[in-house]
Design a protein that fits this description.
globular
Length: about 220
């Protein structure tokens, strides 16, 4: 069920959170732009949730929390969500195309559009570490020694040759074993690609792909 994003004042408070940020701080402008974009997505958020059941963490707050903690809207006395609950709600929210809709809604804001130009663009790539342990990077087809005891099934991989052709993650099938450079540790990861307008450098497009080393 779509949780309520309304912010209510508390009876007792040791200070106003907004007063901790100076009036001319650029974060105030950014937060206003994000709130306007999220308001435009209200109907899209409603479609993702059942009208019945327990209230979820408001999707607006999930997105703000991924950007900057001050954007969330919690009062000083409000408890922070349990990490497992937050992760479950976040994964449900981003199972669709909400991320792209959020970026498109933000770029459509008048104060952002004036910063964009269609003349010059640049690309930037980065390595995104997957939320998957290399202990779960096992031979394909179930071959190889059985996993050890414990939640992670620890094994001694010393001397074993592991590659994306012969092995796969049992917790994230899309993650790939990737080494950023010589002498660095190989990790399960993705490649993140960002398209930027070269004048003011805002990101106007983003996508994640398999970690193959190709842009």
């Amino acid at each position: 069920m779509h949780g309520n994003d309304a912010v209510f004042g508390s009876l007792f408070s040791y200070g106003d959170l907004q007063k901790r940020v100076r009036p001319a701080h650029p974060l105030r402008v950014i937060r206003g732009l994000i709130n306007s974009a999220l308001t435009d997505l209200s109907s899209a958020f409603d479609a993702l949730y059942s009208p019945f059941g327990r209230d979820s963490i408001p999707p607006e707050r999930l997105i703000r929390a991924l950007l900057f903690r001050r954007f969330v809207g919690l009062c000083l006395e409000d408890p922070v969500w349990d990490a497992a609950t937050f992760s479950k709600n976040r994964d449900h929210l981003f199972a669709g195309d909400v991320a792209l809709k959020s970026l498109a809604a933000l770029l459509a804001q008048p104060k952002v559009k004036i910063l964009l130009s269609s003349e010059y663009f640049s690309f930037d790539d980065t390595l995104l570490e997957a939320s998957a342990s290399t202990k779960r990077f096992r031979p394909k087809g179930g071959s190889g020694p059985p996993p050890g005891t414990g939640s992670n099934g620890e094994q001694n991989f010393h001397g074993q040759k592991r590659s994306n052709e012969t092995h796969a993650s049992t917790t994230d099938r899309d993650a790939r074993l990737y080494r950023k450079g010589r002498g660095t540790e190989a990790k399960l990861a993705f490649m993140g690609h960002g398209l930027m307008e070269s004048g003011n450098c805002p990101i106007i497009g983003a996508v994640a792909t398999h970690a193959s080393g190709a842009a």
